């Protein structure tokens, strides 16, 4: 079967991300990508120059997808505490089982090593935190920092689930986030405890 002459960058980078999930970042080589896409390794080198650039472009496209999903969920979910829970549950759906989550952590290491990818992560954190802030407003308006606090709890819940993945991740995350929101609501009516925590 003849090799394809062209393939859009988006498709090539999607194939590269699939290789990273299956074999880790070290498994992404121009030879492996050539096998996965049917393009020649020399064509891929001409297009992406080197492995560092290939990895960066692959992960930037993955961040683009996460940004789109976050925006879509934010646009379609109510600005209520339950909407905040649903937003984070929706973002958890891509993890699937424990193996997929573990593979994602291997890839996250590459994000943390590259300043451009860290900057993308920071921008997403800010956008997600704002979307959560809008859903967790108190009687006198938004509570500064509450969205980031909830996002941090979500990330912790994902990690704790990974040690004992007895139920689907979305169910675990929903239960954990509902407890978190419940504690926030209780805390609002328990000023003495909040005053102790502020000291």
Structure write-up:
This protein has 2 domains: 1-49, Arc Repressor Mutant, subunit A, CATH 1.10.10; 63-198, Orthogonal Bundle (Tetracycline Repressor, domain 2), CATH 1.10.357.10. It has 10 helices and no strands. The model is unreliable at 189-199 (pLDDT under 50). It is 76% helix and 0% strand. InterPro entries: Homeodomain-like_sf (IPR009057), HTH-type_TetR-like_transc_reg (IPR050109), HTH_TetR (IPR001647). It holds the Pfam family TetR_N. Residues 6-66 form the HTH tetR-type domain. This is TetR family transcriptional regulator.
Produce a short descriptive summary:
The protein folds into two domains: about 1-50, Arc Repressor Mutant, subunit A (Orthogonal Bundle), CATH 1.10.10; about 65-199, Tetracycline Repressor, domain 2 (Orthogonal Bundle). It is about 75% helix and about 0% strand.
Strand portion: under 5%
- Number of DSSP strands? 0
Number of domains: 2
Q: Quickly name the level 1 CATH class of the largest domain.
A: Mainly Alpha
Order of helices and strands: HHHHHHHHHH
Give the proportion of residues in helices: over 70%
Shape: elongated
Rg calculated over all Cα atoms: 20 Å
Amino-to-carboxy terminus distance? 71 Å
CATH architecture of the largest domain: Orthogonal Bundle
CATH structural fold name of the largest domain: Tetracycline Repressor, domain 2
Q: Which residues sit in consecutive blocks of at least 5 with pLDDT less than 50?
A: 189-199
Describe the protein's topology.
Blueprint (H helix, E strand, L loop, with lengths): L8 H15 L6 H8 L3 H8 L2 H26 L4 H12 L5 H16 L1 H21 L10 H18 L5 H20 L2 H8 L1
Helix pairs in contact: 1-2, 1-4, 2-3, 4-5, 4-7, 5-9, 6-7, 7-8, 8-9
């Amino acid at each position: 079967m003849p090799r394809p002459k062209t393939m859009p960058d988006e498709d090539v980078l999607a194939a590269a991300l699939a290789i990273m999930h299956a074999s880790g970042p070290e498994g992404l080589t121009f030879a492996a990508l050539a096998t996965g896409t049917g393009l020649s390794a020399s064509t891929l080198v001409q297009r992406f120059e080197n492995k560092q650039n290939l990895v960066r472009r692959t992960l930037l496209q993955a961040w683009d997808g996460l940004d789109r999903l976050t925006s879509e969920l934010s646009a379609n979910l109510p600005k209520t505490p339950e909407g905040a829970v649903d937003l984070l549950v929706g973002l958890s759906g891509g993890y699937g089982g424990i193996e997929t989550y573990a593979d994602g952590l291997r890839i996250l290491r590459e994000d943390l090593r590259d300043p451009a990818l860290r900057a993308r992560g920071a921008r997403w954190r800010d956008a997600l935190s704002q979307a959560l802030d809008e859903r967790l407003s108190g009687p006198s308006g938004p509570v500064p920092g509450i969205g980031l606090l909830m996002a941090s709890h979500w990330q912790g819940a994902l990690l704790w689930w990974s040690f004992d993945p007895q139920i689907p991740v979305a169910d675990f995350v929903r239960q954990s986030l509902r407890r978190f929101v419940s504690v926030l609501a209780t805390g609002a009516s328990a000023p003495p405890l909040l005053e102790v925590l502020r000291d």
